[in-house]
Predict the structure.
Amino acid sequence: MDNKDIKVVKFGGSSLADAGQFKKVADIVLADPARRFVVASAPGKRHSGDTKVTDMLYNCYELAAKGEKFDNEFTAIEQRFNDIITALDIDLSLADEFDAIKYAFAHRAGRDYAASRGEYLNSIVLAKYLGFEFIDPAGYIRFDETGAFDLETTRSLLAPKLLATEKAVIPGFYGSMPNDTIKTFSRGGSDVTGSIVANACSAVIYENWTDVSGFLICDPRIVDDPKPITTITYRELRELAYMGATVLHEDAIFPVRKAGIPINIKNTNHPEDRGTFIVSDTAETSRYTITGIAGKKGFSVINIEKDMMNAAVGFGRNVLRALEKNDVCFEHMPSGIDTMSVIVNTESLIGKEKAVLDEITFRCHPDKMEIENNLALIAVVGRGMRKARGTAGRLFSALAHARVNVKMIDQGSSELNIIIGVEEEDFETATKAIYDMFVLTED
Ligand code: ADP
Ligand code: ASP
Ligand code: MG
């Protein structure tokens, strides 16, 4: 087959949660011979209130690492896989695999190893069901000594392997370190594996199959039935993914972007829906002024005041050096003439508040300084905002009508996004108000 025809398909946890979902996945994969490389997640939730296999593995390993008994927890994990195998009626026993994993747990093989077994086992089952080869990414997806993903080495190992393989299932979420121990990406990392595989085989497209019909304008847990985005650029998506639109792992963009491979987010439960195309550039004007809205809670702001700050050369640099010294990243830094606010992730500041404030005092001698917590950030993103006049005005009038107090505003110079900071308790109200203003009233 011509290599140019390869499609890489990744199925998320909910798409592979039980035998019924496996059947849908097989129908999708087998409907198109170009779908040659399948990246699989561990079984996810079958219904709300259920537990993902990855979480079951973390919990089970925690007991093992403490030297406590973990048989019951492990049996529940075995059961999830055995239920799938039985219902699909495939000729496969994972008994030896379970024994090996249990042994490794008892001998403290590591938390990452433990978590990775969900995708490992699920991919063995899926490969058998589809009649595809199974490729263990431990031998191909590599991290460097610092724990950073190593695209060059990975490509040099994975590309020839894929070239020599007709069809395969590859577990998502993990690879290995130079000393061959297993390492996982952060949560949701099977998306990253899919992107790496697409890069390594120069796929025409990376199809990311999930439980929603594409990237929606905003989180469906906040707004009921939001409209899907038909086409979005990598840059817009990165802004949204970073700010909490978790459909796609934020690091899944780089490997495909580098190779110019589009991503299509599709719904396993509604394969006929077009889904969302993520592309490097598009001439398609977006239907609405904005492309999407996303946000996150859990930020803090350090407010700094000093008379004549505008004339103090190096003031900003000194503030940032104080953060750097304490290993704290900053997210935004809106400033006035005599004021500066530095927004940081609250978690990264916990336990370091005093050290950071002391360091800023030492370096900058501010007149006044305070830390405010419980800030939520909302990013309003869209390539169409550059052309539309009055976007900021409409945004703030929508928030004012909804009685939301805006605590911070930051507009990137690319005019691709406006970031606002609001009290955490106003987060949902603000998101809904923005959606109503830019989507419902523009329909
Ligand atoms: P998978 O298990 O397939 O990787 P995820 O749970 O990681 O799926 O991502 C899909 C989920 O992301 C959706 O079910 C939805 O609840 C959530 N989500 C958050 N923001 C958005 C958004 N803007 N568009 C679509 N889904 C979103
Ligand atoms: N199973 C892993 C998780 O739950 C990775 C993934 O699903 O992408 O985070
Ligand atoms: Mg996911």
